[in-house]
Amino acid sequence: MTDIIDRSENLADRTVDTLITxxxxxxxxxxxxxxxxxxxxxxxGRIHAITPAGGHSGWQATQVxxxxxNVLSPGFxxxxxxxxxxxxxxxxxxxxxxxxxxxxxxxxxxxxxxxVTLKGDPPDPMNLLGEANAFQYPTFAAYVEALxxxxxxxxxxxxxxxxxxxxxxxxxxxxxxxxxEIEGMRAQLREALDNGALGLSxxxxxxxxxxxxxxxxLALAEPLAEAGGLYATHxxxxxxxxxxxxDEAFRIGRHARVPVVVSHLKCAGVDNWGRSTxxxxxxDxAQRFQPVGCDCYPYTASSSTLDLKQVTDDFDIxxxxxxxxxxxGGKLLATIAADWGVDLMEAAKRLQPAGAVYHCMExxxxxxxxxxxxxxVGSDGxxxxxxxxxxxxxxxPRVLGRYSREQALFPLAExxxxxxxxxxxxxxxxxxGFVREGYWADLVLFDPVTVADAATFTDPMQxxxxxxxxxxxxxxxxxxxxxTQNARAGRFVRRGTPQPVx
Length: 502
Known about the structure:
The protein is an alpha/beta fold.
């Protein structure tokens, strides 16, 4: 448990901005919680003092919030998002703030909003981030400037996408990059790292990155170590050859001498169900020799663009949007195919470009991966989908409600650790992720008895239950299922030093 110091007797200045009274602490460390109650004082955006409940006698606070015995934890850190353009275009960020998320990591799966210079429409899957007019940042410095001007309601840290870099330097993406093209990509990656980017991400499963051989990524990743960056990857495949894909990711991390984060680790496809034990054993083995971790979202369905390689009748595929046939959004691919009198593949081709939800996982595998000590939580939500996967609005309360409280997959303190402290350490988010004096006051107050996700596949844009209040950099930004007025207090978070995952 966090060290508690009663400083009320020797503080010369007892004036604070906010006093949160009578709370139980889940401090982000994973240390088991107690029934002890505390008061937490905030000043100048940081946690000023933590005292036993009632220890604030004589203090003057501009704002007092009664905790009523609920749990106060660090704000949740969504390590896997595609919010790159939305934090500028829709800075209120209600889908994340409403579920207690105070920091997002953008630029995952090889796709980022910057540095990007388009030659036409954004290539798949960069189109998940928006249409061409959303990509206005030819340098990472330009993106940071736009972000700071927009001042979103949550903090933003960023990875740089491999596919985005390929787009900038190659005439077509269905081939390996040349040495000169790789050097151009490295130069842009260095500029981004110099301006605070976290590291490099890849999405090698997607067609516009799949032609990149391992050697291309090895060379591109070389600037990461000197900067203290990390390598995050949407594996080359999450289906039958996933072990080979993991080996490739581990090799890249060893070559670059940086930590590896495997994005949304899963056993995709019916033939892969039940292999999570084998996959996690491979991850455990790799951890003996290098820092490796993973993130996971708490659902048995994935979501992305409609990928012809994933078209199958083994499980349901829900079409979320279609540029060529927008009226088909919200229908199952099988239903569309039947209505059109064609097979699934032909229907998928006619719908292109399109998005989809794939019900391609088994619950036992999700539980096993989510419970693993190396796993942190990321939503992988797609904010530009007209009918988004419910993880966009519900991932973090779902971990607390469904998996911790209802299924007892892990204690509440461990669930919070996977969404806060462990995430901050892994991604190098300095002075965040823990309830500690002097740390930034990113905090969420929630009722452990009622916290739950409200978003569903048919009605996904629903704020969570049980999230009483959210503070971002000390500013009360969400309360009683609604944003507070004029309280956007997020900022760009520069790269710190990622901690080895051992």
